[in-house]
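A quick aside before the break. I want you to see a complete sequence-to-structure record at least once, exactly as it would be stored in a machine-readable document. Don't worry about memorizing anything.
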Amino acid sequence: MLLNELLNKAERLYPSKEAIVCGEQRWTYAQFAERVHRLSAALASLGVKKGDRVAILHRNCHRYLESYYAAAQMGAALVPINYRLDPSAWVDTVEDSGSTVILVGEGFQDDWQSVADTVSDWCRTISCPGHIGDAERQPSMLGYEALLERADPRDAPHPTLNEEDVAQIYYTSGTIGRGKGVILSHRNVYVHALGTIAELKLDSSDVWLHAGPMFHLADGWAVWSITWVGGVHVVIPEFEEQAVLRAFEQEGVTITSLIPTMLNALVNYPRVGQFDSSTLRLLLSGGSPIAEALVRQTMETFGCEFAQGYGLTETSPYVTLSLLKDHLHNLSTDEQVRYLSTAGREFIAAQVRVVDEKGNDVKPDGRQVGEVIMRGDTVTKGYWKLPELTRQSFQDGWLYSGDLAVIDEEGYLTIVDRKRDVIFPGGEPVYSVPVENVLYSHPTVLEAAVIGVPDQELGQTVKAVVVLKEGQEATEEEIIQFCRERMAETQAPRSVDFVQSLPKTGSAKIAKVAIRDEYWKGSPGAS
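That is the input. The structure line, written in tokens, reads:
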């Protein structure tokens, strides 16, 4: 199975069915497919061929969907770029991937032009929307819509492809200086798509909202699954509370995925109750652990099912989902919420283990901590042009995640920390995620991050950095006492700082490394 066949199937089965809603524009599956063929033909006319890379720097848009499928059809690899990074990182991504074409959306063209000199000799720039007549404003760029209008869909190339051909290269910001490119094959992506269709019971009645960034797999996986079943893609440029709620109401959205920081903002949006979200059947989350309090608030606010997912870019992404096993539906609401707040049990298309330092499985008692490892058809074969990192990341065919977790007797994982985020006051480990979950249960807390900070006596102590909900007040002593009443005193924060906001990564997760670095500046252990 090849990824371009997913759209071909939808076009055959649902030619006149609505496929994409983007702003005021709407396209059927037949129209979607024709635009993909035109884009594929246009890229071929620029010299793009099987095995080449095509980069895209764009907010969420129908052109993102078209680019994913056009690249797949012609055997090129799409390279999504995180537009929230510094422009120098955009160039790094293009250079490292060797992309010969980059599609650049509105709002990024001037910044791209200012840094593109080093790649302009071999990387062509296509501006979006780029209608005919725009050339005077952007003489050094080709126009996307102009290229499509002039292209003949019958000229779209159809090279012989293999399931193991590279379909996408996703660059993770990671902890090394330049992001590393994660290679995903046609097989990786279509097996994951098939797994999500089975697990989430997706069908042609589903309406997916692309609210998370499409350069990230937290949303990008749905490009394939929703198309395969003939569902509807509703696209908004980026997450914004009112835009999401308006889409729920106006387009009858049935399913979407929002990382915890987005969900938190949405359920605490003052006007959330004024919008009709009755068509929602399932809200997914992932990207970072989620607090039970937020899961409960989400389900109460929207009256729908909830599931937390866990995975990596390297795994396409899901390896676990917190969907309840049948017999767990008989538990109390509180117990169900506890399970739904975990990382979940094995995803149908992946194998997952939690192992100790010797590679042995930890006891499934919900207490013994180990590292999450995974393998399966959805797992990357490696990193682009980084053979040594690829070798280091795998042992006996298992990918080592760097995430620490416990697993219970039902097979549900709970992530307790990243290896690098574990705090060691006096040498004993304190895991930040359980402490953060307690903080999120405090009625005044909007966001929280728990880090280790320098301490002369203990080496490190536990600090909470907290954002309070609008109009709420709390003291350091109150927060510390609240935590001590719910966990061992050695785990509770020794200090609390209140801030107006927490820094976020390019994918909108809380940037714990940046927070920690502020406190370690000038200290012996500073990163």
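Two observations worth writing down. Residues 423-520 form a domain with the GMP Synthetase; Chain A, domain 3 fold (CATH 3.30.300.30). The first helix runs from residue 4 to 13. We'll return to this after the break.
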